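FIELD: query
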Amino acid sequence: MLSLLVASCGPSIYYLGEEYGRTRVVQVFYDEKRIDEPYSVIGRMTNDQTKKYHPEQIKKQMIQKARKVGADALVFTDFEVKRIEHEQDDRLVVKAKLLKFRR
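FIELD: result
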């Protein structure tokens, strides 16, 4: 019961893209212009979190997912808080692109 409650409070992370072997290190960027190496976008990720969300925890979980699908880098592209009509809670949406460096 407790694990079900904890799981329901975590972010729902959705990924659409290619998968490679797991990577150990994922570089984090907030602006694609700061990336010096040539790369390909291998996918896009978003979360859907309501209730008591913690942006740093969501960030960590998105990096963990990027590692799992084999991304070399993650670029956070959007961060938005939306009020849900007729409810007390709001919704945090974080979007990112996943990259593979061409080496």
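FIELD: remark
The chain has a mean pLDDT of 85.
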